[in-house]
Write a structure and sequence with these properties.
It is a single chain. With 153 residues, the chain is α+β, with helices and mostly antiparallel strands. The chain is built from seven helices and seven strands. The strands form two sheets. Strands 1, 2, 3, 4 and 5 form a five-stranded mixed β-sheet that branches. Strand 6 and strand 7 form a beta hairpin. Helix 4 runs antiparallel to helix 5, helix 4 packs parallel to helix 6 and helix 5 crosses helix 7. It is globular and about 50 Å long.
């Protein structure tokens, strides 16, 4: 059974000024934004810049990671996204292949586990696409290992 995550990852295509405007709107809607981010600071995971916001919902906190579209991989990720509508709520989702690649790049144990679960459940994936980007991102060996392990399950 896939793991339920408690965060939201969003990829944004904007400059620093646009990001600061977005952070102001997010803060106005009840999210907490660290002062360092409001001054233009950014975090980094797997070579990707991001800004983290939080929303306290009483029983738990929701983390929202805003990743900045700065690479050709992220541009491809955005180009391949698909629009979904659930209960009159419209949103965009990245492809399964891009989710796997993002998880492999993040390189945390839980990310590998998530990627492996997607590989096991979603048997028909564009492996050529994933290998192309894994090579570009320097994670081809890790992807090949995950592909091998998922086939053995």
């Amino acid at each position: 059974m896939p793991r339920s995550t408690q965060d939201i990852d969003i990829t944004l295509f904007c400059d620093d000024e646009g990001l600061l405007s977005i952070l102001r709107v997010i803060e106005d809607r009840g999210y907490t934004v660290d002062e360092a981010y409001k001054r233009g600071g950014k975090g980094m995971v797997a070579g990707l810049h991001f800004v983290q916001c939080k929303r306290d919902l009483g029983s738990h906190t929701v983390d929202v990671d805003l990743f900045l579209c700065e690479s050709s991989f992220q541009q491809s990720l955005l180009n391949r996204r698909r629009r979904e509508i659930v209960d009159d709520c419209e949103f965009w989702l990245i492809s399964r292949e891009d989710l796997i690649l993002s998880k492999v790049c993040a390189a945390r144990y839980r990310d590998y586990s998530d990627a492996e679960e997607v590989l096991v459940i979603q048997r028909q994936l564009d492996e050529d696409y994933m290998r192309h980007w894994a090579k570009e991102l320097g994670v081809l060996k890790k992807l090949e290992q995950l592909l091998k392990e998922s086939r053995e399950m």
